[in-house]
Amino acid sequence: MQAVLTIDLGAIAANWAMLRDRAAPGLVAAAVKADGYGLGAAPVGRALLAAGCRHFFVADLAEGMALRAVLGPGPMIAVLSGFAPGGDEDAALVPVLNGLADLTAHAAAGRRRPVILHVDTGMSRLGLPPTEFELLAAEPGRLGPLQLLYVMTHLAAADEPAHPANAVQAARFAAARARLPGVPTSFANSAGLFLGADFASDLSRPGCALYGINPTPGAANPMRQVVTLSAPILQVREIPAGETVGYGAAWQAARPSRIATVAAGYADGYLRALSGRAVGILAGRPVPLVGRVSMDLITFDVTDVPACRPGEMIQLLGPGNTPDEVAARAGTIGYEILTSLGARYRRDYLGT
Ligand SMILES: *Cc1c(COP(=O)(O)O)cnc(C)c1O
Asked: Which of 185, 198, 119 is nearest to 158 (CA)?
């Protein structure tokens, strides 16, 4: 008996197509870093390629090389954290240049190669800081033979539309792009695609929305749900009022109760912070998680569900229990729920 993670590649493709239509005439890439947000960069990448996506962003070199082997030579694969020039990857991947030092190293290699220039407009994480950008804008010859595919920046607070950082970053990016006339631009992440015309660009870079996370927090989720996670009941037991369940004896039955023990735990990415806070769905009904999440097991109060047996599946993620909803209960974000999904689940891909 094993937990089953179902990943709907058709829903991912439909989500990408929705964003593509929204962003037109700009193009839409896909952020598939961290193994496709935990869902499998290879199957996700193949599905997006089949849907028409031709631009992919990964976090590091290893992710980029692995994705290139899956997708073949056609699509652009850009590496957000960049890489040093001179290796085999040079021809296969596009480095994102995050500072003048990166730029100088690639220019000095002397090859006419495509690069993406990342300008920091308020994230203070990666990208050319304003002083470095000034040096480059004043002396574009520093690019040497490099071919600027895009100038990009990354939004810090796109999921909070009213946050003043958004307008600040849009203004700074507009100023930067004016200094590099004719260079195509890359701006919005998922939430940025819902912020309006000031955030449009030639290549948007959504990630989370492709995987069903709401890019418009506070409003209805316009994306299709992608993941369902169901785990089997291993045992069902009756306990008297007053008995406790799990580590720390943290939950005590207020009435005679029926407890179902289920095969998933924090080692599977079912976060321990969900202890006492989550719900499962059994036979269409919500059942509360009781006691602490342990490494391999969780426990649900199924007293109100008649006749449940070992082998039945409790839904841990899915409609009515979305990654965003589970994240809220754990005090985190849907991204962390997805990227934590464990290796022990059987993975079923729909739509292949
Ligand atoms: C992760 C990432 C994205 C995608 O962000 P989402 O919020 O998942 O849409 C886009 N650009 C950069 C630079 C990123 O690191």
From this structure: 198
